[in-house]
Amino acid sequence: MKIAVLAGGNSSERDVSLSSGSMIYKALKSRGHQAVLLDVYLGYEGETENIFERETDWASQVGAIGEESPDLETLKYLRKDGGKQFFGPNVLEICQRSDCVFLALHGANGEDGKIQACLELLGVPYTGTDFVSSAMAMDKGISKDIFKAYDIPTPAGIRLKKGEQEETKFPLPCVVKASCEGSSVGVSIARNEKEYLAAKEEAFRYGDEIIIEQYIQGREFSVGVIGGKALPVIEMIPKMEFYNYKAKYQAGSAVEVCPAEISEDKTLQMQDIAERVFRALRLKSYARMDFMMSESGEVFCLEANTLPGMTATSLLPQEAAVEGMDFADLCQRILDYALQE
Predict the structure, then answer these.
(1) Contacts of 172 by beta carbon, 8 Å cutoff, 6+ apart
(2) Which of 113, 231, 261, 279 could join 131 via S-S bond, C-beta 3.0 to 4.6 A?
(3) pLDDT in tens, 195-231
(4) Of 315, 147, 312, 299, whose CA–CA distance to 224 is shortest?
(5) DSSP assignment string, 59-126
(6) What is the pTM of this model?
(7) What stretches of 140-246 adopt beta strand conformation (E)?
């Protein structure tokens, strides 16, 4: 089968996406698929005819994930057109030549429904959930509203637009985060007024709206859902203050335990909430929900990730492995769901 794996892009999670794409590409090749790995933003300048039949190691061009999210300002200078549009040369043409597009994109312009809507208009099958659900899940403010409507436990919080004055002072400590970013980019814990002002400034670097929410002291967990059914719970134990960008993607920065060492009741509760989130956001195929459990044992769902990481240290593949599903099996399962749709 001809599969175009789309990765890279121009979001703060670009490096993570390229790493995910590389692993997905290799897994698909191991299953006998004619796969091509493309940087959706930089594109491909060469001849596209018979591109899927070529013996090219597309993964060799992908580098490692840095300790910090990448500097995106320099990207546009790598494009002949200065990056005037999102799609790089020949990307859409190659997608239309494929049987399916495997989305390895993360963050803005990849996980927010825009790519999904474009592919639907082109009539090209793609992996993951549809454009409406992608947009709802990507916006943490909208997700929080839906969680509340469906009685899904989530930390108390407010939205704040750039230039807007807060009606009431949110109690400290609190968490300040960009509304539409992933991989903990633009997320800070503020314990005093100085940290709070700095956290807001940092979060506003990534958009015109931020989320300020209740700080939950406790343990961090995640639960993947495939086809509506929850996978085993995984606990993330960072060696720093919280499970930030570095802890997620730098080997040795966190300990991850799967299945999580919690009671059966808490396991079932978290899995049930993850499946309820999957239904509430009308998600399809697969996703991953992130949780906090307070020191008193109260469970809170933080967010849903519709295109969760598929890197060497990512959580969803670790959860699937406990179920006896290796990485290639997981990729094939995700591809099968896309073709069923």
Answers:
(1) 190, 191, 192, 193, 196
(2) 113
(3) 999 999 999 988 899 999 999 999 999 999 999 999 9
(4) 315
(5) GGG--PPPSS----TTGGGGSTT-S-SSSPTTHHHHHHHSSEEEE---STTTSSSHHHHHHHHHT--B
(6) 0.89
(7) 157-161, 174-178, 187-190, 209-214, 218-226, 229-238
